[in-house]
Design goal:
Chain B: Belongs to the binding-protein-dependent transport system permease family. CysTW subfamily. The complex is a heterodimer of chains A (about 260) and B (about 290). Chain A is an all-alpha fold and about 260 residues long. Chain A contains eleven helices and no strands. In chain A, about 75% of the residues lie in helices and about 0% in strands. The chains are: A mainly alpha (about 260), B mainly alpha (about 290).
Chain lengths: ~260, ~290
C-alpha cells in the first residue's frame, strides 16, 4: 500500500468515526422499539408523533427558537459594528482590540457562566431569560466578529466611493450600496449566532431560571433516565434544522449569485 | 482621501463602543468579581456572607480531592489533545493535498459537525458503546461474546466523546495552515534529493506546526473546561474540574466555593492560552474562519 493510499484509508476511517454516531441517531429515530437503542424492531414514525405531542419539548423548542433569534439580533448588531471598525479603519492598537473582542472565547465557558451568574446575582438580577440572552450574545459575539470580518475584507471601498462621487449622500450610499453588500456577511453572522445559542448547554445549565428549558437542557434532563426513543427523534429533527438551514441558505446564495452573472 | 488623513478618527471608536461595553460588563468585570467572591464565606445553602477570609482557598489547597481533580483534568486534556492531533493530522493533510474533484465536499463534511447539536453528538456514543449499542450488537452477532462488553460510563467513553466533539477544530486548524503552504516547496525539496518522507518532515511538517498548535490549544482548553460530557458519558468517578464547579454551584449552592474553583480553572487554562499567545500570537486562531 502506498503512503497516499494509506492516508486516504485513514481519512475515510476518521470521517467514519465522525459521522457514524450521528448516522446511528438518525436511523434509530425511526426504530419502532420501546427502547432507545438497538436492535431495530421495525420502522415507524411513532416517536415523532410522541415528540410533537410532548408539551415540555415543544415549549423548550419555542424557548430555544426565540432565544436564538434574539441572540442573533443582539450579537450580530454589535458584532457587525465592531467588524466594520476592524476592517475599514486603521488605528493604533488594533491587535489588542482584536484580542479583546475574541476574549470571551478564551475564557472557559464554565467559568464565564459562573462568573456572570454570580455577578448578576450580586446585582440582584437572578437567573432569567435576560441573563440567557446577554450570556448567549457574549458567547456568540467573537464568532460573529470573526465570521463577518472575514466576509467584509472582500468588499471593496471603491463601490462606495463611486456612489459618493456620483452624488449620493452618505446615508443614501449606506442603504443603496454598503448595506446590500453587507447583507451576506450579516446573514452569515446571524446564522452563526443563532446556531451557537440554539446549541449551547454548558452555560445554559447555569443561567436558565428554574422551570425554563431550552432544547439541549431538556434533552439533558431526559437523559437522566436513559436514552428514550423520543430523544432520537428529537435529535433527528434538530439535525435537520441545524444542518438543513445553513446548507439550504448556502445553496440558495450560490444559486442566486450564479444567476446574476 | 482627506478624511483618512485626519490624525484622530473617532468613527472606529464609536463602532467599537457597544462591543467594548458588552465585553467589559459581561466578561471582564464578572471575571474580576469571582476573585472577590472567592473570599466570601458560605453559611448555608445559597446563603453567603461578605467577608475577606481564605477558607475557600485553604480548602482548595489542602484537600486532596481538588488536587486529584486538577491532575485528572490535566491528564485527560493532554491525552485527548494528543489523540485528536494523531487522528486529525492525516485527514487534514489529505484534504489539503488531494486532487479529488469534490474537495469542497470533504471541507463541507468537516464543518458539518459544528452544525450538529453538541448534546446529540455526545449522547450518540451511548448508541455505539452502550450495552444495547452498535458495537455490542455487532460482537454478539459475530459470536465474539455472549455478554455485552462494558464500554460505557468510564474514562474511556468520556475521552471518546470529547475527541469526537473537538476533533473538527483540530482538523480545520491543521488544514488551514497546510493549505497556506507554497505547493512548490515539497517538489523543490524532492529535486534537491530529499525522499518523500524527508521532504514532508523537513518542509511541510514544520510549516504546518502553527495550525497544529492552534488546534491543540483549542482542544486542550475546551477539554479542560468541560463538564457536560463526563456527566453524560462518564461514571460517578469520571469527573473533570468543571464538574466540581457544577457540583459547587448547582448541587451544593456553595457559591463562594464555586467562585474559587472557577477562578482556579480560569488561571490554569488562562496561563496555557497566554503561554501559547507569547509564542504563536493569537492570529492563527482566527485564520480558520477565513
Amino acid at each position: 500500500m502506498s503512503a497516499w493510499a494509506f492516508i486516504r484509508f485513514y481519512t475515510i476511517l476518521v470521517y467514519t468515526f465522525m459521522f457514524a454516531p450521528i448516522a446511528v441517531v438518525l436511523v434509530l429515530a425511526f426504530n419502532n422499539s420501546q427502547f432507545g437503542g438497538f436492535p431495530i424492531d421495525g420502522l415507524s414514525l411513532r416517536w415523532f408523533h410522541a415528540l410533537f405531542e410532548n408539551e415540555a419539548i415543544m415549549r423548550a423548542f419555542r424557548t430555544s427558537f426565540i432565544l436564538g433569534l434574539m441572540t442573533a439580533l443582539v450579537a450580530t448588531t454589535i458584532g457587525i459594528l465592531a467588524a466594520l471598525a476592524l476592517v475599514r479603519y486603521q488605528f493604533r492598537g488594533k491587535d489588542w482590540v482584536t484580542t479583546f473582542l475574541i476574549s470571551p472565547v478564551l475564557v472557559p465557558e464554565t467559568v464565564l457562566a459562573v462568573g456572570l451568574l454570580i455577578f448578576l446575582r450580586w446585582l440582584h438580577m437572578p437567573r432569567s431569560f435576560t441573563l440567557l440572552l446577554l450570556g448567549h450574545s457574549i458567547i456568540a459575539l467573537p464568532f460573529v466578529v470573526l465570521v463577518v470580518q472575514a466576509r467584509l475584507v472582500g468588499i471593496r471601498r471603491e463601490y462606495e466611493e463611486a456612489a459618493r462621487s456620483l452624488g449620493a449622500s452618505p446615508v443614501q450610499t449606506f442603504f443603496s450600496v454598503t448595506f446590500p453588500l453587507l447583507l451576506p456577511a450579516i446573514f452569515a453572522g446571524a446564522l452563526f449566532a443563532f446556531t451557537i445559542s440554539f446549541d449551547n448547554i454548558t452555560a445554559t445549565i447555569f443561567w436558565r431560571p428554574s422551570g425554563m428549558e431550552t432544547v439541549p437542557t431538556q434533552i439533558f434532563g431526559m437523559l437522566r433516565h436513559s436514552v428514550s426513543p423520543e430523544i432520537n427523534a428529537l435529535g433527528f429533527v434538530m439535525i435537520c434544522i441545524t444542518v438543513g438551514v445553513p446548507l439550504l441558505a448556502g445553496g440558495l446564495a450560490r444559486y442566486f449569485s450564479r444567476r446574476k452573472i | 482621501m482627506a478624511e483618512t488623513a485626519t490624525p484622530i478618527d473617532k468613527r472606529p471608536l464609536v463602532l467599537l463602543t457597544p462591543a467594548f461595553i458588552a465585553i467589559t460588563a459581561l466578561v471582564v468585570i464578572p471575571m474580576s468579581f469571582i476573585l472577590v467572591y472567592s473570599f466570601y464565606e458560605n453559611i448555608d445553602l445559597a446563603v453567603d456572607r461578605v467577608a475577606f477570609q481564605f477558607g475557600n482557598w485553604e480548602m482548595l489547597l489542602s484537600d486532596n480531592y481538588y488536587h486529584s481533580a486538577i491532575w485528572k483534568t490535566l491528564r485527560i486534556s493532554v491525552v485527548v489533545t494528543v489523540l485528536a492531533a494523531v487522528l486529525g493530522y492525516l485527514p487534514a493533510y489529505f484534504i489539503a493535498m488531494t486532487t479529488f474533484r469534490h474537495k469542497w465536499l470533504l471541507l463541507l463534511l468537516l464543518i458539518l459537525p459544528f452544525w450538529v447539536s453538541f448534546i446529540i453528538r455526545t449522547l450518540s456514543w451511548i448508541h455505539i458503546l452502550g450495552n444495547q449499542g452498535a458495537l455490542n450488537g455487532l460482537f454478539q452477532w459475530l459470536g465474539l461474546s455472549d455478554e455485552p462488553l462494558r464500554m460505557m460510563f468510564n474514562e474511556f467513553s468520556v475521552m471518546v466523546g470529547l475527541i469526537h466533539v473537538f476533533l473538527p477544530y483540530m482538523i480545520l486548524n491543521i488544514y488551514v495552515s497546510l493549505e497556506g503552504i507554497d505547493r512548490n516547496l515539497e517538489p523543490a525539496a524532492r529535486t534537491l534529493g530529499a525522499t518523500p518522507w524527508q521532504a514532508f518532515r523537513e518542509v511541510t511538517l514544520p510549516l504546518s506546526l502553527p495550525g497544529l498548535a492552534a488546534g491543540s490549544l483549542l482542544v486542550f482548553v475546551l477539554t479542560g473546561g468541560s463538564y457536560v460530557t463526563p456527566l453524560i458519558l462518564g461514571g460517578p468517578s469520571d469527573f473533570l474540574f468543571g464538574n466540581l464547579i457544577y457540583d459547587a454551584v448547582v448541587t451544593e449552592l456553595n457559591w463562594p466555593m464555586g467562585a474559587t474553583l472557577s477562578f482556579t480553572l480560569l488561571v490554569l487554562l488562562g496561563s496555557v492560552v497566554i503561554l501559547y499567545s507569547r509564542f504563536m500570537g493569537l492570529n492563527q486562531l482566527s485564520k480558520a474562519f477565513g
